């Protein structure tokens, strides 16, 4: 029997909490053990129940989800925090991650991805939906102060068994090009590009977009040192 994941739901809309609880409790390995309607109550519930995962909305009274996340990670580091919100603003995303969020999903996410995110963060991985990953790529590249040309990007070599198409997509990801722009450029669906990205990350043995970019940078540095 698989391990049961204990979860609390923090959202100021009761109907949202009830809907999420109904959805999650159809899964045999997930148990919603408590709910909270504001940030302060969330901290009390986490203190009392010590859940595996706290699913937190950003817009909550008394203490917003970002500050709530920061306090949970500081006081109860074993509890994973998955932000579930309608806001895709870069400021909210980066603040949440800087405060220790283990994942960030939008409320229009499908059930399959929602469950995947819960299991990923529970097992110590970071999880960000495709659109959120695009924002993280751009932030990473902005911090480096450079956007490389496709000709200068070194992609991991034959040991990783990337296909020609995967190398092309990896190069575009490294340049900060969004899934939609890649899809338009290659005349493919966004879902196809997301599948390629998932396969690339799996082959390179990374769990999130930040690790993927670091891997590319390592390969690039190795190539330059050998030339």
Tell me about this structure.
The chain is of the alpha/beta class and 227 residues long. It has 2 domains: 5-126, Rossmann fold (3-Layer(aba) Sandwich), CATH 3.40.50; 135-226, Arc Repressor Mutant, subunit A, CATH 1.10.10.10. The protein contains 10 helices and 6 strands. It has a 6-stranded parallel sheet with strand order 2-1-3-4-5-6, with helices on both faces. Strand 1, helix 1 and strand 2 (30-36) form a beta-alpha-beta unit. Helix 2 (39-49) runs parallel beside helix 3 and helix 8 packs across helix 9 (190-204). The termini are far apart. Mean pLDDT is 82; it is low at 145-154.
Strand content: 5-15%
CATH superfamily of the largest domain: Response regulator
Provide the structure class: alpha/beta
The top level CATH class name of the largest domain: Alpha Beta
Helix percentage range: 40-55%
CATH architecture classification name of the largest domain: 3-Layer(aba) Sandwich
- Mean of all residue-level pLDDT scores: 82
Order of helices and strands: EHEHEHEHEHEHHHHH
Q: Can you describe this structure in just a few lines?
A:
The protein has helices spanning 14-24, 39-49, 65-75, 90-98, 111-122, 130-144, 164-174, 179-186, 190-204, 209-226, and strands spanning 5-10, 30-36, 53-56, 80-85, 103-106, 127-128.
Keywords for this structure?
alpha/beta; 2 domains; Arc Repressor Mutant, subunit A; six-stranded parallel β-sheet
How are the SSEs placed, and which strands pair?
Elements lengths: L4 E6 L3 H11 L5 E7 L2 H11 L3 E4 L8 H11 L4 E6 L4 H9 L4 E4 L4 H12 L4 E2 L1 H15 L19 H11 L4 H8 L3 H15 L4 H18 L1
Parallel strand pairs: 1-2, 1-3, 3-4, 4-5, 5-6
């Amino acid at each position: 029997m698989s391990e049961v994941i204990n979860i609390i739901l923090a959202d100021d809309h009761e109907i949202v909490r009830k809907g999420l609880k109904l959805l999650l409790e159809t899964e045999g390995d997930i148990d919603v053990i408590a709910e909270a309607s504001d940030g302060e109550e969330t901290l009390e519930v986490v203190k009392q129940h010590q859940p595996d995962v706290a699913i937190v909305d950003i817009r909550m009274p008394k203490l917003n989800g970002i500050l709530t996340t920061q306090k949970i990670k500081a006081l109860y580091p074993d509890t994973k925090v998955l932000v579930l919100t309608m806001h895709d603003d870069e400021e909210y995303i980066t603040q949440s991650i800087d405060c220790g969020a283990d994942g960030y999903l939008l409320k229009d996410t499908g059930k399959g991805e929602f469950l995947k995110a819960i299991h990923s963060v529970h097992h110590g991985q970071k999880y960000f939906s495709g659109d959120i990953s695009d924002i993280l790529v751009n932030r990473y590249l902005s911090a480096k102060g450079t956007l490389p040309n496709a000709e200068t990007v070194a992609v991991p070599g034959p040991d990783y068994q990337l296909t020609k198409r995967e190398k092309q997509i990896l190069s575009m990801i490294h340049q900060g090009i969004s899934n939609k722009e890649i899809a338009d450029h290659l005349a493919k669906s966004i879902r196809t590009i997301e599948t390629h990205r998932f396969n690339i990350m799996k082959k390179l043995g990374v769990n999130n977009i930040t690790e993927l970019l670091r891997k590319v940078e390592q390969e690039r540095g190795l190539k330059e040192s050998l030339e």
